Structure formats: structure tokens, C-alpha cells
Amino acid sequence: MKPATLSARLGLGFAAMTGALVLGLAALAYFSLSHQLTARALDKLDGKLRQIDHLLSENNVTLSQLKSDPHSVQDVLIGHEELHLTLLDASEPGTPLTGSDTLLSPPISPRQAGNNQVRYWHWENAQGQRILTGSQQVRLPDGSSLWVQLSYARDNDTQLLAEYLRAMLLALPLLVIGISAGAWWLAQRGLAPLRQFRAVTARVSTQYLSHRIPAERLPRELAEVADSINHMLERLDEGVGQLAQFSDDLAHELRTPISNLLGKAQVTLTRERSQPEYREVLESCVEELERLGRIVTDMLFLAQAEAQTAPPQATEVKLQHEAQRVMALLQVLADERGVSLQLLGAAEVTGNQLMIQRALSNLLHNAINHCAEGSQITLTVESAPNEKRISVTNTGPGIQADQLPHLFDRFYRVDYGRARSAGGTGLGLAIVRSIMHLHHGEVDVSSQPHGPTTFTLRFPNPQRPTETP
User: Fold this and answer.
1) What is the pLDDT of residues 370-413, one digit of tens each?
2) In 3-state terms, what secondary structure has residue 469?
3) Distance in angstroms (rounded) separating the CA atoms of residues 182 and 188
4) What value, to the nearest 5°, has the Cα angle with vertex 169 and ends 30 and 167?
5) Do residues 273 and 281 touch, judged by C-beta distance below 8 A?
6) Residue 261 phi, psi (nearest 5)
7) Which among 110, 214, 103, 116 has a CA at the least distance from the CA of 151?
8) Which tens digits make up the pLDDT trace of 306-321?
9) Which residues contact 379 (CB under 8 A, 6 or more apart)?
């Protein structure tokens, strides 16, 4: 079964809620109206009973006069056809003096017994009429007493309540249908921006990531969703663009040594060569193959580093010790260029020892290759309140400011020809950045036009747990 649309669900839900609310209000109005009609009937009976009590008490009326002329009391009910008066001799319970032959005459009830207080009760006669009766004992001036029973036929009240109930039963379905249609229409209009979302996402593909959802005229809640989707599309667009650029760069990097190998092999095979010539060609091929091997190794390292969220086998690492090891490994290269190495400071971080060594090795190797001959490279280890850092500073020619943001991109070279002749793969600084991301740190660079140039590895201090009192 196909699920209902969101607008239909909202419309039905709103209609059900509104129907229940209207039904509750109608029931409340019905009971309130019924209560008010009963209160009015009681007030009316109370007023007439007081009037009858006053008439009997103040006019020296006797029982014999009432038996012979009951109309002297019945006249107070002229114009009130819904009222009926019954007088009972209190000395002879069950003997009516007047008004006992109509449907409004109440049965002789035990409620008649008691004091002179007025008592009311509801009852129905043989015709199903709802009747409210008030009963009071009245003492006459001659010392005798009688029971006064005044009944009120509530036919008008019953009819009014029935008409109200009939009107509500007719109006309620129409009201619910109207509200349901209105709620569905409002839901359709309110959810219209979602159709824009669907249209945009249907056009998005890896080839077309430039589509965006216009969020200017959307409601605030949907505008926030649209902004999130647009930011996601921007990240995807940037990531796909970087991946495409990386693929182009990788193809270019691999094509050059492969073309060199192929060209040398084809030229060598055009005629017979001497053994020294074959040896020279093979040595050149080995050099290119080693370069290919380094590119593949670096690419594998980058892929593994970016697939992890934390450095493997993290231990306490003393930065000054790792810097000394790297300096010892590259001392021969530094001596060839007459470069002196200097280490200052000490600090300890948590991380993978081999990865930190590799990051320092890449930075120091670059510094040796690009600094001036006979200059000095300084490695400075520092401890700050929020981080530990180690900087590699060389006095080389400096790097242009517009090139600094691209130094950590894969295969990016400031001087392409010199770096390639030096055997670099263009992945060294990209590997450094991946290592620092894996350690939740960062690497940055600063450079002056004529030097010095400083690369800094920043390791954040681990957050201490908050002490609770």
C-alpha cells in the first residue's frame, strides 16, 4: 500500500484534532445551556412559590375557601401555561384540594414530608414530559397547613436542547470537511519548497554539482535545511574538483617517468648498443622506476592516513628526540651543502612515533634542499598553554605569498623543474598535512620574500576532564 502524502497526513491529523475540539466545545455548550435552562426554571418556580405563599398568608385564606374557590389562588398562574399548581391538605396526606387531574400533577412523594423549606425534583409523566416540581408546606392564618406543589413543564427547554443538538450534528461534519480541505491546502502551500528541493537534488550528479537551492524566500526552518544542503553540495563540489585535479596531476606525474622509460627503451632498441651503453640505459630506467615506486608508496601512505581518524599505536613522543634522529639521518645531505643544523627546546606529545618522524623528515629534507648553501637550519621545540609545536626554519630565498596556500596540495611545486630534478614526488607536504590531521593538529608556513621560511607543526594539548564537585 502506497504511503499517504505528507500534506494528506497533516490535513487528516489537523481535521481529527479540530473535529475533537469542536465536538468537545459543542458538548460543553450543550451542558452549559442545559444548566442555564434548569437554573432559570428553578428561579421561576421559586418566585411563583413565594408569590403563592404570600397570597395564602396575607389574605386570611382558609382550607374551606380553597376547596370552594380554588381559582383565587390559580389566578397567579394566568399567562403561564407551562405551570401547574396542586394544593394538598396536610392533615389528610394524599388528598388534593385542586389541580390533581392533569398530567402535570406530581405523584404524592415522600419529599413532601419535612419542614417548610422548598424542595425540587425532576420527574417524567406518562407522556414522557420532563417536569420540574417545587414543593413547600404553607401554614394558613387559621392554623391549618397545606402542601403547595408547583410543576413546570419543560417542553420548551427540551425542544431548545434538541434543536441545538440537531444543528450541531448537521454542522459538525460540514465543519470538519471544510477544515480538512483548508488544512490540506495550507499544507500543500507550506510544503511547496520541498518540491524545489526535489527538483534540485534530481539534477545533481558528479558532473553537475553547481546547482543550489534558493533560500532567500523560504521559511526559516526550511531555509536552514536549504543552507545545510547547499553547504553539503559546496563541499561535494570542492571534493570532486580536488579529486579530478588530483587524478589529472597523478596521471601527469606517472606519465612522465613512463614516457621516459618507453622513449629510452625504443631509442636503445633502434640499433645494437655496447655493454656500457646498455648499462647506462638500465641505470636510468632504474632511477625512473624508483621514482615511480616512491610515488606509489606516498600515495598508499596518504590513502591509509586519510582513512583513519586517529594515529595508530599512539605513545608519548619526545619531539626533541625525534628531531635529533631525523637530523642524524639527514646530516650527510646537510654536510654536502654545508648546512648546519641546530635544535632548541623540548616538549612531549602523544602520537605515532614513525609518523612524526616522517613529518619532520619531510620538512627538514625540503629545508636542506631549498636553503642557501652554508646557511643554518633551526629546529625549535616549544610548549605553549594550548599546544606543543616544533618549527623548522631555513634562510632560503622565501616563498611568494600567493603560493603559500597551495604548498600542501598534492603534486604542487613552487619550482617544478628543480624539485623534479631533486627527486621529489610533490607529495611530501601533503603527507605532512595528513599526518597532522590524524593527530588533530595542523601545519602552517610563514615566509618572507627573501627568507626566512618557517614550517610549524602544532600538536594540541589533550583536554583534561572537568572536575565535578
Assistant:
1) 888 888 999 999 998 889 999 999 887 888 888 888 888 877 77
2) coil
3) 10
4) 70
5) yes
6) -60, -45
7) 103
8) 777 777 778 899 999 9
9) 323, 327, 341, 342, 343, 344, 360, 364, 390, 391, 392, 393
Residue-by-residue DSSP string for 71-100? HHHHGGGTT-TTEEEEEEETTSTT-EEE--
User: Residue 460 in contact with residue 386, Cβ under 8 Å?
Assistant: yes
The amino acid at residue 264 is: K
Phi/psi for 206 (5° steps) reads -65, -25
CB atoms within 10 A of CB 324: 14
**How many CB atoms are closer than 10 A to CB 115?**
7
Residue type at 321? H
Single pTM value for the model: 0.54
Low-confidence stretches of the chain (pLDDT beneath 70):
1-4, 92-95, 98-116, 414-424, 463-469
Distance CA 213, CA 227 (A): 8
- Which residues are CB-neighbours of 211 under 8 A, at least 6 positions away? 200, 203, 204, 233
DSSP state letters, 396-456: SS---GGGGGGTTSTT--SSHHHHHHTT--S-HHHHHHHHHHHTT-EEEEEE-TTS-EEEE
DSSP assigned state of 110: G
Residue 39 and residue 27: Cα distance in Å, rounded?
Answer: 18
Give the whole-angstrom CA distance, residue 255 versus residue 363: 27
**Are residues 298 and 254 in contact, defined by beta-carbon separation less than 8 angstroms?**
no
Q: How many angstroms separate the CA atoms of 20 and 176, rounded?
A: 9
Instruction: Output the CA–CA distances (angstroms, integers) from residue 168 to 29, 38, 165, 175, 180, in the order listed.
Output: 10, 21, 5, 10, 18
> How many CB atoms sit inside 10 A of residue 214's CB?
12
Cell of 439: 593527530
Sequence-separated (6 or more) residues with CB below 8 Å from residue 422: 369
How far does Cα 156 stand from its chain's mean position?
57
In angstroms, the CA 319 to CA 388 distance is 9
